[in-house]
Amino acid sequence: MDNQIFSSSFEHHYGEVPALIAHAPGRVNIIGEHTDYNGGFVFPAAINFGTWVAASKRRDNTIVVTATDYEDQRNQFSLNDIQYDKEQGWANYVRGVVKVLKEDFPTVGGANLLVTGNVPQGAGLSSSASFEVAILKAISSLYKLPLDGVKAALLGQKAENTFVGCSCGIMDQLISAMGNEGKAMLLDCQSLSIEHSPLPSTHQIVIINSNVKRGLVDSEYNLRREQCESGASLLGVSSLREATIEMLEAAKSDMPEVVYRRAKHIITENVRTLAASDALKAGDIATVSKAMAQSHASMRDDFEITVPPIDYLVSIIDELLGSSGGVRMTGGGFGGCVVALVPTDSVDAVKEVVDKSYFDKTGYHADIYVCTATQGAFA
Ligand code: GAF
């Protein structure tokens, strides 16, 4: 992103230079899927794709936002009356975060905003969280609000849960706000404690976008959440974070089979996430590889959130890498992307193996992004 060109574009739209440009990244989750809303562990990294927001203050109580990625559509609303917009769906991420921000910081005032981004949408790389956190970063910086990264993430999640209508967990907003360059972040979603650990210099993060557009995401996502809550309740714990595999096996015959399998995924995924993060720190790639393979199998068989083209991508990359790297589906599921931790000298081979057969086998073209882990939101 060229800041000079973006500033000129802001000037073209609003007749003044922006006071600041804020940025928030998308994310890739290395391991720990659907564990966040169960109080568990996740291990994502912020990536070098994100959302940029140029901003200046307005004297009135109005937010005006222009979206370059939606043909310069403009949306405008008063801070005194923030309603859901049925016409311009994208604008509800702005309306939602401004509404929850204003509840906590009533002094927030009007703003002109210009937004652009390059996180592939609907691909499981958190384009929405990156959008929410970038808007929060821009407005809180304009008005010098004491909003730290964790608080920004909680507001972004609240906006998504209460205004946009997705019962997401905290992972995406928190990594977008708090990521570190070159590092993945182990997050305990119960205590919100964070530990950053360097990614191995021998490996690259490679993301393969299946280009299967995620279908039924919100309804299936919310259903998984309900099934997990039902599992916790049948086990007599406040969240599946508190459950062990022994407790689950003992209660198996008293619970619906589907709830058993959903709970099994969460309980085993928490164990795998901690094991993978420890192993990565120790440079033990073979253990990371095994944990990622088991995570994918668990998402496919027990949590049932993968689709055949994604399973195919994982199988061909897994066969190529063996224990030298890891591969699994990343994100909420039902399409989207695969993440692979690939030895630097095998990146071309991964591209080749995907190019060779993915289209013929599935009818979809894959996009491949070799990513770096980046810093979280800044202005
Ligand atoms: C989506 C949600 F937004 C996250 O909170 C998380 O649950 C993820 O799916 C699955 O791990 O990205």
Automatic annotation (TrEMBL):
Pathway: Carbohydrate metabolism; galactose metabolism. Mg(2+) binds at S128, E160. Keywords: ATP-binding, Carbohydrate metabolism, Cytoplasm, Galactose metabolism, Kinase, Magnesium, Metal-binding, Nucleotide-binding, Transferase. Substrate binds at E33, H34, T35, D36, Y221. Coiled coil: none annotated. The record marks R27 as: Transition state stabilizer. Transmembrane segments: none annotated. The keyword Nucleotidyltransferase does not apply. The active site is at D172 (proton acceptor). Residues 92-179 form the GHMP kinase N-terminal domain. SUPFAM superfamilies: GHMP Kinase, C-terminal domain, Ribosomal protein S5 domain 2-like. ATP binds at G122, A123, G124, L125, S126, S127, S128. One of its GO terms (biological process) is galactose metabolic process. It is found in: Cytoplasm. Pfam families: GalKase_gal_bdg (PF10509), GHMP_kinases_C (PF08544), GHMP_kinases_N (PF00288). PANTHER family: GALACTOKINASE-RELATED (PTHR10457:SF7), MEVALONATE KINASE/GALACTOKINASE (PTHR10457). Catalyzes the transfer of the gamma-phosphate of ATP to D-galactose to form alpha-D-galactose-1-phosphate (Gal-1-P). This is Galactokinase. The lineage of its organism: Bacteria, Pseudomonadati, Pseudomonadota, Gammaproteobacteria, Alteromonadales.
